[in-house]
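Quick one:
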Amino acid sequence: MILTSFLGFTIFAALLTIYLTRKDDKSSSDGFFLGGRTLTYPVIAGSLLLTNLSTEQMVGLNGAAFKDGLCVMAWEVVAVVALVLMALFFLPRFLRAGITTVPQLLEERFDKKTQSLANMIFLLAYAFLLIPIILYSGAVGLSQMLDLKTLTGITEPFQFLGSQVQPDTAILWGTVFLIGIMGSFYSRLGGMKTLAVLDTINGVGLLIGGFMIVYFALNRVSDGHGIAEGWATLKQASGAKLNSLGDSNTSVPFSTLFTGVALLNLFYWCTNQQIIQRTFGASSLAEGQKGVLLTGLLKLLGPIYLVIPGVIAWHLFAKDGISNDMAYGTLVREVLPPQFVGFFAAVMIGAILSSFNAALNSTSALFSIGLYSNVINPKGTESQTVRAAKIFVISIAIAAMFVAPLLAGQQSIFAYLQDMNAIYFIPIFAVVVMGFLHPRVPGSAAFWAMILGLVIISVKYFVPSVKKAVDSVLLYNFHFLGVVFAFLILFMFVWASISPRPTAWSLKTSSPIDMTPWGGAKIASAILIVVVLAIYMSFAA
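Output:
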């Protein structure tokens, strides 16, 4: 039953996607990387949502909720504020520039040196951090959800190449490579639009499955007496876990929402190539804005299926001593009826493949436009560029498969992801913000601000004596990130005051699409902000 429903939904989603995108252009750069700039708002929203909602969210964020409670919903709810800023401020500028990658914008705004540095940072981060974490968290989630030890019969240690291999290790490596191979195959099927349509189909399944889990889990809490009684029981027994305002003992104290947590969300939703490449393919500015704001509306539902299940898992299984990152998979396996487990596993596979392919597609765009077309083969044809990008990303995918299992042993994969992301999120976001806000900041200031930010954050993270000293003053790592961001902004401002760019920069319009903004963007944005405040107030203790 589990295998039948799993294969059924997976095959259905793949065949429907191939049929719907069978006539799309996948041979040109715009066609392969941006879907021919024809994406409409439902596809943009569905693709953004599922690109974000991979297993580092489903497994990692629910694992964080298992440990810290409802306060970790900040990663979902504060994201809505970032999406509003994306729709109103960043997206119009990105689309007006007609770019395919963020480093392209940095070359236009600053210089080629700044573009090359940002391009290399993105490539390294995706290859050795983002893609391996997607594979690792996906493997952990699926192994718990499907009980792969029992399914595969690998329950005892065995000898391999002269070494004893534990069952968990064998299953982890095998699942990582299975997901990686499937993802690489999917990435060969088509370009951005193919992946975006597949994301939308899986996104519908993900929402249905996510709410199903909450329904069955709350029924389990109430011993079958309904979700209302289950929620009342959960509130009474686990009330401290349902506080939206994190304290000093949690990973997201409330004060950090205004420093590092806000900045990481802003980078992620406004300048992260993996995410915003979906919006670059919008058929018009209005469609892009509607897609981004619809994503914000859907993110408001995120705490229901990305945080509440973690709290329920703590209520049900904390006594069993399971780890944070195993909480969600255990909950799914224990509360879902068998006929739905396969369906949800297929949806999870879709989420994994979506994020995996989004990262691969972004990596291919960064490589082909930033390196291949500029350095390796400037005279190459469109088809040569796309072919080189496909070969490159397969190499990256293989490397990531070997790196992913090495992440085992982290206390919280979600916390690890946020820490490592910050190393490059903060410097690049500071440079992009100053590039837009101060037209006299020169390229040399941006280049050295990125270098400085990378060094400062890395030293703090990896030099124990520095980490201890900084933490004793700033208390929370997210406050440290806020201080670094402010310092980099000040650094570039002072540089521009002493040695400004000779002429003020202005954004040139080179967009092939209609740049008329959506008339309802500001009203919709205001409503979303009000709802964010209402959610926090409703759960504040």
